[in-house]
Design a protein that fits this description.
This protein is α+β, with helices and mostly antiparallel strands and 103 residues long. It is 44% helix and 22% strand. Belongs to the UPF0045 family.
């Protein structure tokens, strides 16, 4: 499964980067495959291990903020591994071919 999530504190002002870094640190220390971009962190693994990381990332932000916002989207597809890479590679392959892939 792949989970894309965003966790941020509420009520701490506009500069939330330090709080978000606390959450991303939890993800990086998990050892699971992950990617972080400007809007979301994506993490890949089994249900229980991924949800545990999300829960701990939220707790890391919550420890310094009284209120936390969590946005989460999941792709639950048993048996698929390396989806973080393979999904992007598939799109890049279609882009390189220069067509829409449809006739």
């Amino acid at each position: 499964m792949i989970v894309a999530f965003s966790v941020s504190p509420l009520g701490v002002g506009e500069d939330v980067g330090e709080y978000v870094a606390d959450a991303v640190r939890v993800v990086r220390e998990s050892g699971l495959p992950h990617r972080t971009d400007a809007m979301f962190t994506s993490i890949e693994g089994e249900w229980d291990e991924v949800m545990d990381v999300v829960k701990r990332a939220v707790a890391a932000v919550e420890a310094r903020s009284g209120r936390v916002s969590l946005v989460l989207k999941a792709d639950i597809r048993p048996g698929v591994t390396d989806g973080l890479t393979s999904k992007v590679e598939t799109v890049e392959r279609y882009l390189a071919e220069g067509g829409s892939g449809r006739s």
